[in-house]
# Entry
Amino acid sequence: MKHISSLIRRFISIENIKNLQYDVIVVGGGHAGTEASHAAARMGVQTLLLTHKKETIGEMSCNPSFGGIGKGHLMREIDALDGVCPRICDTSGIQYRILNRRKGPAVWGLRAQIDRSLYKKNIQEKMFNTPNLTIITGAVENLLLEEGTTGGIRCSGVILADGRKYYSNCVVLTTGTFLRANINIGLESKPAGRIGDEPAIGLADTLQKLKFKIGRLRTGTPPRLERNSINFENLKYVVGDKPPVPFSFLNETVWIKPEDQLRCYITLTNKTVEDICLNNLNMNRHVREEVKGPRYCPSIESKSIKFRGKNHIVWLEPEGLDTSVIYPGGLSCTMSGEMQEQMIHAIPGLEKAILIRPGYGVEYEFVNPTELTPALETKKIAGLFFAGQINGTTGYEEAAAQGIIAGINAAAKVIGKSEMVVSRTEAYIGVLIDDLTTLGTDEPYRMFTSRSEFRLLLRPDNADQRLTKKGYEIGCVSEERYKHFCQIDKELMEGLDILNSVEMSLYKWRKALGFNTTKCNGRNKAIDLFTMKPDVTIDMLEKTFPDEFKTISQKHSVRTRLEIEGIYSRTYDDHWDIIEEIRKDESIKIPMEIDYHSKIINLKFEEIEKLSVIQPQTVGAASRIPGVTPAGILRLMHYIKRTSENKTHISQ
# Structure
């Protein structure tokens, strides 16, 4: 009788809430999910975030850092769109550095070592207090589908494992590494998406039944070490920048004092480590698997196989201010715990290191991202969006970048606005999404500055000028941020006007600033000096010529940005010509109903096959598909033009 009454109570509670309606549902509380749900809520739509556990929202499940080369650009762009993780990093970091400083500022990599606990605390506080956002725990097992108003199928909600149903206009899946996932340590394998968390089996089955192109990838994480058991005495170390450079354009500084930043130490592997890895491959299921792992962040076993005889850097990174846990970056491994201990003890400084937790590998399913439009909506099912590692990417930053775009476009669809597509000519986010949706991936995709053709223009310092107005117009950027951006933009424009208006002979500049050049002919603007003599600063100009430069903004960040603008001022014209050509192609939309098999288009078999599978949205996207020739693009453009002219003629 007691059992029956509990069933009735459970049934009543399910019945009471099963018809709850939201505008947007986001599945998954990782970095893609937090950005997606927060972006949708910022745009004023009622948003539901469904997660396995509220306490793991914003969990940094692998490395304790954000940013880096390429990734730091993504962080600045996320911030320019009013995303949350860059601001949380500015209140949670324990060491801030700019990587790649030996090269030009276009490829500098902003990076922050993060206090895991502090980050999770701060982002959860932000999420739990966000208007229009409801957070509920539950495992999503299935999708609710129905016929769309214009034909086809649309997603109208989700079904949880306990039978609860939540209805919505759009659903964003950000399942991370949880789809039909296994954890591997040595020869042991068990179902899990992360230590202590169950995999998403039902949802993986659903996507398979819907005939999405499913692949399988693998990744890994290092063991965790006890700080007090490590001998740091003879190890090199790096310290944070003074002053630290924040991720967010809203901040002039970060929360931690420059002198309080923690050190990160460096050690090296050796032949003993390599031998342990190579001699135990037969006992390492993860390495033996025929599944692609990350090329650019490989396990120590993979590095030992590929780069025999080479010693590899291991970064000993603190995981926080109030913890003794050390993260050995560069030492991802999946061998047995016993072998991991032997390997660790062979590394200088770690001879007596205590393993708090062994490293492990994760195998998981992903959906080929060519199934998506540039708005990250699936082509098969309207109102269903994917973001993060479900699309084959790796890294917090790549996940967050996709999450914010998916959340914006899901909300835009609900309120009847046009989707926001970010082009590869205007942001690294655009490069990321264009690469994924046009080319797909068969290995975990990671962002690098080398992936962009226009990295001299797509710099960390100008991400707000490229994206904030665009975000404000669609509604994801707050009034406060937009006003802040407008003020900074005004100061930059005024500064550039001054730098372009002050002109004098090169001889006079040389004499005043100490140029070591024999060329003294002609006149030059102040803006030219930053290219000719990279160590010139606004402060130097103001000190030497106070009357001419005294009205330039006194903000350090504005002055730094003006100097960077000066360095690249001479390269702009050539780049803009190429960008305009690409944007013309991107503006030519390919009709949804196009039949690539048509003899009128006269495409080659390989071109027909590639275009039919990927279904590019624009001529520009089609031109980047391997196997589609320039001649094929020309035929396609002629066909689109003729079709458009015929439609115009018929309508008249």
In short: The chain has three domains: 14-477, 496-574, 588-651. The two ends are 75 Å apart (CA to CA). The longest strand covers residues 165-173. Residues 1-18 have pLDDT under 50 and may be disordered.
